[in-house]
Amino acid sequence: MNPKILATIFICSSFLVGCGGGDGGDQYSTSPEDTVEQNNLGWKKTTNTSGTTEDLVNDITGVVFSHTVDVPFIDTVLLNASDIVTNDAECSDGGSYSYSSNVIQLNNCKGWFSAYTANGRIDVASNGTVYTFKDFELASSNGEALLLNGTAKLKLTDTAASFSTDELDIDTLQLVASNQFDNVLYEITNYSSQWKSVSSRATSIATKGRIASAGNDEGDFNVSYDGTRAPFIFDVSDDNVESYYPYTGGLSIQDRSNAKNWITIVANNDEASFQYKAVENDKVLINKNALWVAFSE
Question: Which of 15, 272, 287, 293 is deepest in the core (most CB within 10 A)?
Answer without folding.
Answer: 15
